[in-house]
Amino acid sequence: MNSTTPIADLGPLNRAREQKAWFFYDWANSAFATTIAGVLFAPYLITIAERAACGFVGDEDRKCRETLEVLGIGIAPGSLPSYVITLSTVLGAVLYPLIGAMADRTERKTDLLAGFAWVGAAAAGLLFFLTDDRWLFGSLVFLVANLCFGASIVISDSLLNLISEEHERDRVSSVGWAYGYAGGGLLLAANFLVVTFHDSIGLSTEMAVRISLLSGAVWWAAFTLIPWRGIKDKPPVGVEEASGGLVARSFGQLLATLKDLRNYPVAVTFLLAYLFFNDGIQTVIASAAIFGEKELGFDTGVVLGAYLLVQFVAVGGAIAFGRAAARVGAKRVILAGLVVWMVIVTVALFVPEENLVAFLLLATAIGIVLGGTQALARSYFSLLIPRGKEAEFFSLYHAMDRGTSWLGTLTFGLVYQFSGSYRPAVFALIVFFTIGGLLLLRVDTERGIRDAGNDRPAIV
């Protein structure tokens, strides 16, 4: 063969294969995010907590007015899920940056991803045994599952930079979110049928909910096999010199990165913006089922149906936001999405009880902006990250997501505790979208890309 014969560039083909495998982790973990964390866990835990506090389940005519005692503090059963999520996110703030540093120092990133996913899925599977008045058991196993979920997402998101180039990221991230909503939606559809028609298949409502919780854990564990097998090991680059074992070296890596943050002020400004607007998004997601059941008076089957609608609308929303970003830039599209979020939490103040049409219209609006804003935030931030520190920077990103996003859930829980209504609790979240949007306006995209040493996409 002639020595000058060109050799085919297999890079794009190999990236495309790994991107498809990576999409399936969004598909896998969305089962936990939707069926378990999004829809069933919070209302079901409240039911268990009301049983423990009052000896019955609260309803329209007989509200549970007693509290649960935790370390001498009285907690309203209706606020318990918000406080559990708050504790989980505070613990995540401590753990995720260390996990990110460990991931950046090892080539076995997919092993770490799968390990956290499978431990989290095992903990989530234990929710099948959440019965009677075992609210403390349910709170603890969900805490473990949620922490592992966040840790796996840190590693998964960091892989975005390693399997795609800068000009591909908005598209790849948006397709990943679309996969997530499609996968989570399919399982949610099956669980919707189980919960809605539980009598027809000989199940109590409680057993139908428990089986659905278990299905989310099994789905998460099973589909994690695809990215685990399909993404090659990525050798670390630019690691800091440090002595000791992996944990000790990871602490050294993390400390060096934290000191180096002053060299990336644009990334820090974006992280602050993300802290606020994502607090609002995550709290809406975590509290929507409570709002639908406990405030608007819909049963679990109707709320599952609304979430199902959100899932499938969000598939199109994520793709549409990705295409819009290709034309006008991710930052502008995210800002437009935040305006829509402000409208949504304002409308929630006035949605009539048991008005199904209004409830479904609100769900549709949420679906349109939900996947799009999150997908573009992920790809936009990826442009501001220096090479070799992907997992550490994404750990800080998720410290704002699931690690320090305690302000939103705490605000929601406190407003409900003092007002006795979920309507003002939802509306209070408008503060987070407003502050986040104002901070995002201050982010200088061009400078951030230069600071990180990345290539500038054609449209930013």
Topology:
Elements: H1 11-54, E1 68-70, E2 73-75, H2 80-105, H3 109-125, H4 135-163, H5 169-196, H6 205-223, H7 225-230, H8 246-260, H9 265-295, H10 300-328, H11 330-347, H12 356-382, H13 390-403, H14 406-419, H15 422-427, H16 430-441, H17 445-452
Helix pairs in contact: 1-4, 1-5, 1-6, 1-9, 1-10, 2-4, 2-8, 2-13, 2-14, 3-4, 3-6, 4-13, 5-6, 5-10, 5-12, 9-12, 9-13, 9-14, 9-16, 10-11, 10-12, 11-12, 11-16
Keywords: Membrane, Transmembrane, Transmembrane helix, Transport
Protein name: MFS transporter
Subcellular location: Cell membrane
Q: Architecture, CATH level 2?
A: Up-down Bundle
Mean pLDDT: 87
The share of residues in helices is over 70%
Helical segment count: 17
Report strand %: under 5%
Number of strands: 2
Membrane topology: Multi-pass membrane protein
Transmembrane segments: 23-46, 80-99, 111-130, 136-163, 175-195, 207-226, 266-290, 302-321, 333-351, 357-381, 393-416, 422-441
Keywords: Membrane, Transmembrane, Transmembrane helix, Transport
Subcellular location: Cell membrane
Description:
The protein is mainly alpha-helical and 460 residues long. The protein has a single domain, classed as Growth Hormone, Chain: A. It contains 17 helices and 2 strands. It has a two-stranded antiparallel ribbon. β1 and β2 (73-75) form a beta hairpin. It is globular. The two termini are 44 Å apart. The relative contact order is 0.16. The model has no long low-confidence stretch (mean pLDDT 87).
